[in-house]
Amino acid sequence: MSPASNMKFQMTKWNRNSVSRQALIGLLITILLSGCSLPFFSGYGANGQTREEFTRYVETVFKLQNSMTSKMMAFTENDEKPANLDALVQAEQRMQKTCEALNEYAERDSDGLSVGLLLQRRVEQTAVDCEKAAKELQVLLK
Fold first, then answer.
1. What is the pLDDT of residue 39?
2. CA-CA-CA-CA torsion sign (121, 122, 123, 128)
3. Where are the domains of the chain?
4. Of 134, 76, 54, 141, whose CA–CA distance to 100 is shortest?
5. Mean pLDDT of 28-49
C-alpha cells in the first residue's frame, strides 16, 4: 500500500469515527435537553409515575396547598384567633417555601408564559414535600 493510499485509508477511518461520535453526542444532547431522559429511566416525580399520573398528582397537591392558604387567610381576617396561631403561621410559611416551585409553575402557566425544564424538574423534586407540608398545616387547622 502506498503512503498516499495509507493516509487516505486513515483519514476515512478517522472521519467515520468522528461522525459516529458526533452523532452520538448529538443524540445525547437532544435527549437531555428535551427532558425525556428521566422518564425513560424512572418516570416522573419521586414515585416514578407516568406523565399523566404525575400531572394529576401535582394538580391535587396544588389544590390542597391553595385550600390551606385560603383557610389561613380566613383565620387572619377573623377576630377570634386560635390558640395555636403561632404554630399555624410557621406551618404555613414552611408550606409556602416548600411549594414555591409549584406556585411559580402555576403562575407562569396561568399567565401563558413558558415553563422551563429546570422549573419542571424543581416541581418534580418538591411535589411530595409540598404535599407533606400542606397536610401538616391541614392537621393543625382541624
1. 47
2. positive
3. 1-34, 44-141
4. 134
5. 60
